[in-house]
Each structure stands twice: as C-alpha cells, then as structure tokens.
Amino acid sequence: MLEIEKMSYWERNTFFKDIDFIIVGAGIVGYSTAIHLRKSHPNSKIVILERGILPTGASSKNAGFACFGSATELYDDLQHFSEKEVWETVEMRWKGLSYLREIIGDKNLKLKQNGSWDLITKEESDLFQETKKMLPYFNRKMEEITGEKSVYSVDDKVNEKFQFSGIESSFYNRLEGQIDTGEMNISFHKKAIELNIILLFGTEVSNIDTSHNEHVKLTTNIGDVFAKNCSICTNGLAQELLKDEDIQPARAQVLITKPIKNLSINGTFHYNQGYYYFRNIDGRILIGGGRNLDFKGETTTQFENTKQITNQLRTLLQENILPSTPHEIDYEWAGIMGVGKSKKPIIKKISPRLYCGIRLGGMGVAIGTLVGKELSEVDSTS
After folding, report:
1. How far, CA to CA in Å, does 264 sit from each of 42, 121, 162, 272, 377?
2. What is d(CA 307, CA 335) in angstroms, rounded to the nearest whole number?
3. Which residues does 6 contact at the CB level (< 8 Å), separation at least 6?
4. Is the model's pTM score more than 0.85?
5. Residue (of 69, 47, 56) closest to 28 by Cα position
6. pLDDT (tens digit, 9 = 90+) per residue, 147-185?
7. pLDDT (tens digit, 9 = 90+) per residue, 23-75?
C-alpha cells in the first residue's frame, strides 16, 4: 500500500487535505456518527478510517440479535445495579433499535420479529422462580418504555415446540427479533457514500496526538493524517488508543452449521443467562458465547477461536439444541466487543478536538446507531 507521501496530487488533495471530521472505525457507531455529522455539517469534509477491509471489531461479526433485555438478565442486573440505571439501559436499547429501524429500514435489515426465548434448565429452578415473581413488574416497566403490554411471559412448551433437550421452561419476549448483519452494514455503507462521506479502508490508526491547537494528528500505517476533529468509534478495540477509559475488549466466538433440512427452530434464544445464544439463519443454526468459561482469556483483541469454547458450543448443539438432528459446522469466527464496569456506553468529549463513542457492552446492534447520533451532538448538548 502506498504511503500518503507517495500519492498523487489528486489523491492527497481529494482524500487527505482539509479534513473537518475524522471518524476512526467503520462500524455501526462510526457510520452513524458520520451520517449525523453530515446532517449538521452539510459542507464539511468527513472521512471514516477503518483498519480492515470490513468493519473489524463486532459490527460485521455479531449474531444479529435485535434484543434489549431477557428476563433473567433483568433479574440479575437488578441485583447489581440501581433500578434507575437498569431501566435507563433498557430504554436506550429499545430506543436505539427503533432508531436503527428508522435509519436503515426493516426491509434492509431483513428484520424478523419472531420473539426470543430465555431458556431455563433444571439447575436454574431457583432463578426461574425468582424471575417469574418479577414478570408483572417487568411488564409494567416495559409498557412504560414501549407502550406494549405483556412483553414477557412464561413458555413451558419450548422443548415440545423446538425439539430441544434438557430445557425445563423459558421466558418469552415477544418484541425481540433478528436481523441480517451483513445487509445492515451494506446499507450503512451505501448511505455514507450517498452523503459524500469518504471511506478509507485498510487504514490503521496507531496514535492520536491532540497537542496541536488547530488539528488532531493521527499516525497511521500510510502516514500522518490531520483533521480538525476526531471521533474514536472502535468500541472493543478502543483501549489501544484510549488508555485511560474504562473499556476492555471482550471476545465472542461464533459457530454456524450447514443448512439443516426442515429446521423447526425459528427465533432468537438465550441460554445460561445469556452467556450462550443461538438463532436460525438461512436454514442454519448460529450459536455463540461461552465467554464465561474463560473471562481472562477472552479479554483479548485476538480474532481466534479456541477449542475450550468451540467444543462447548458444539456440545450444546449436540446435546440440547439439535439432539436428534444430524448437523455439521460450516463456519466459525470471533468478534471483539467492548465492556466495562458499567453497561452504559461512554459518549464524551475527551479534549477540545477528540471525542469517543465506545463500550457498547455487547449491545451494538441495539444502541450503536443512537450512540453515533448522540456522539455527533456532544458539542451542541454540552
């Protein structure tokens, strides 16, 4: 790849001269930030830098869950966080999903609202009973947020319905759904191009210097790039550029089967309080998770699959999800999420010309578009 100093006059003037806004990261947050900056700055030069040929972290690698909170997750969160914080987080996810649908459109997302099931095993009977007691409260709060009644219910027929094994019961969430992650990314890309936003892939930022008065200096693999303002939107990979923020990478490993004839499973599913998750896609089963098996090892930015976790995913497929259905694994991959002590994202101005929208806590699909919008408005609301 040519460095900037070896590029032509045309290339340097068109792509690198007089940049008003640089966004680091071409994921959901990065695209959304650029799109919303264009609305408020119609004549500015806006450039997105992305280290990979596709969004590198999780935006093109996630499972495509349009979710905002399973029943057992809500129960667990309420044991560790204040009610205010829990419901503010849920509300942000709900509003974020609604906004994603507004920006991209259900057709482009290939959205299917088949609902989601929070699966309960025999060993989780105490958790089931405690969570069940709270369903009226959950439904009351969800009606306040969504305007919809009876969002959560108990479904004791889930084994019979989907031919699972070892599942005692479930909590059903009728408003959650699934999207096509690839189609979402293509739609964001097209929208950015239509808005005259410059996209430079294969450009990795290794350092950001904010000591200059009139610009930010970004050190990249193709040379130094200068801009009046810079927004870091790399989520789980942000720690490399922002050492002082409460953000850690969290790897998520995923498997997907070959097509299965007459597959009856239809919807999104959470297992073991959401540490595992699976769904149907194109006649296949996608399954991911298992980070709880090795939290320390999965706090990494390495895009690798490990036998410890993929073997457990295969076991769940074989013993619980598809116990009587022959199947083969067709793909496996890993993505990098961003987590921290709080489930709230970090959306802020770090210095006069540097901003960040990071720490999406595994909920990038739900809140990423809204995070980008809020990030683009930091100066106007501060």
Report:
1. 49, 20, 6, 22, 45
2. 16
3. none
4. yes
5. 56
6. 999 999 999 999 999 999 999 999 999 999 999 999 999
7. 999 999 999 999 999 999 999 999 999 999 999 999 999 999 999 999 999 99
CA atoms within 13 A on the CB side of 259: 4
According to DSSP H, which parts of 13-82 are helical?
28-40, 71-80
- Sorted by where each starts, the structural domains of the chain and their CATH numbers stand as 4-61+182-246+342-381 (3.50.50.60), 114-177+248-339 (3.30.9.10)
Which residues neighbour 20 within 8 Å (Cβ) at sequence distance 6 or greater?
A: 41, 44, 45, 46, 227, 228, 229
Do strands 198-201 and 169-173 pair parallel, antiparallel, or not at all (unpaired)? unpaired
The angle at the Cα of 180, spanning 176 to 181, to the nearest 5 degrees, equals: 105
Is 24 within 8 Å of 49 (Cβ atoms)?
Answer: yes
- On whether the CB atoms of residues 63 and 288 are closer than 8 A, the answer is yes
Angle of helix 364-376 relative to helix 28-40, nearest 10 degrees, comes to: 30
Query: Per 3-state DSSP, what percentage of the chain is helix, strand, and coil (rounded to 5)?
Result: 40, 25, 35
Strands 46-50 and 19-24: parallel
